[in-house]
Amino acid sequence: MSLAYPNLTDTSGVIERDGFTAPDGREIALWRWPRSAGRPTLHWAHATGFHGRLYRPLLDDLARDCNVLAWDMRGHGASAEAADFATFRGWETYYRDLAAFLDKLAEPVWLAGHSIGATTSIMAAARRPDKVLGLILAEPVIMDLWQGWMLWWAKLLRRSDRFSLAAGAARRRREFDSHAAALDNFRGRGGFKTWPEAWLEAYVQHGLVQHGDQVRLACTPEWESATFAHTEHNPWPGIRRLQCPVITLAAEQASTFSQRARQRLRTRLPCAEVEVLPGTTHFLPMERPEAVRDAVRRMMSPQQGSG
């Protein structure tokens, strides 16, 4: 099925909706950009509370070079109905979902992502090394040993829902009178302060769904909060198992990939490329999309040359 992308300022592009079945039987939405035979394939995984088509300003650009796929993680965007607290096992659920997607592919692909999407891509690559050519990670959630220990202890005491991100997400306003009202509400506030207008419009257009006379967040505050509360505290076993090339892009300010974690990654994966982008925050893909684009192209260039 082909869908015209209903961006508030650009309706010229066409992408296709696809999907796959997760291990627990839930359906996960997948978006496909126009494809060409012989080109490499890239899968993009979004951050918590977001959705795949939010990143269209970046992915449209990349679609000139490769075949782009982007999922809506369960509980998010068009996969909102796949949210199921009865089967939710924290980020492990997302890892299993992405590994299941890779199992359905005939050929290996490149994995890229932002925040939880980057970490989930790491874990999927560790579990399905034959299906992943390389990783491009924007602001992955990779904790150092001290941060991980503190989070593990909070989880053990069942207090991780009190952390600022989880508590803040639980209090999020969930309904607005219209998409335009939501856009006005988010513009220039909180984490959205550094977002270009096109990105904010993409988030609002597909991150809120019609609910009666109003629009409602597709990713509910409860699901977003639970995802934050279950943040991965120890990704290192997965990182040690990686067999593919890795490029990581970290923010200069309030990064989810701390300096200590970067140093440890360089020790564990000496061939990994780690770059800190000056002036950026956790919303690095929105602030410096050209840097993410160039990292993807740089990673893929040997593959393109041999294709």
Give structural notes.
The chain has 307 residues and is an alpha/beta fold. The protein has a single domain (2-144, 234-306), classed as Rossmann fold. The protein contains twelve helices and twelve strands. A hairpin with a 5-residue loop joins strand 2 and strand 3. The two termini are 29 Å apart. 44% of the residues are buried.
- The CATH homologous superfamily is named Alpha/Beta hydrolase fold, catalytic domain
Overall mean confidence score, pLDDT: 90
In terms of structural class, how would the helical and strand content be classed?
Answer: alpha/beta
Number of helices: 12
Task: Output the CATH class name.
Answer: Alpha Beta
Report Rg: 18 Å
Strand order of the largest sheet: 1-2-3-5-4-6-7-11-12
CATH topological fold name: Rossmann fold
Distance between the termini: 29 Å
Helix content: 25-40%
Strand content: 15-25%
- How many distinct domains? 1
Largest sheet: 9 strands, mixed
Shape assignment: globular
Question: What's the helix and strand layout?
Answer:
Blueprint: E1 2-4, E2 14-21, E3 27-32, E4 41-45, H1 56-62, E5 67-71, H2 91-103, E6 109-114, H3 116-127, E7 132-138, H4 145-156, H5 164-170, E8 175-176, H6 179-186, H7 197-207, E9 208-211, E10 214-217, H8 221-229, H9 236-240, E11 246-251, H10 259-268, E12 273-277, H11 284-287, H12 289-306
Parallel strand pairs: 4-5, 4-6, 6-7, 7-11, 11-12
Antiparallel strand pairs: 1-2, 2-3, 3-5, 8-10, 9-10
Helix pairs in contact: 1-12, 2-3, 5-8, 6-7
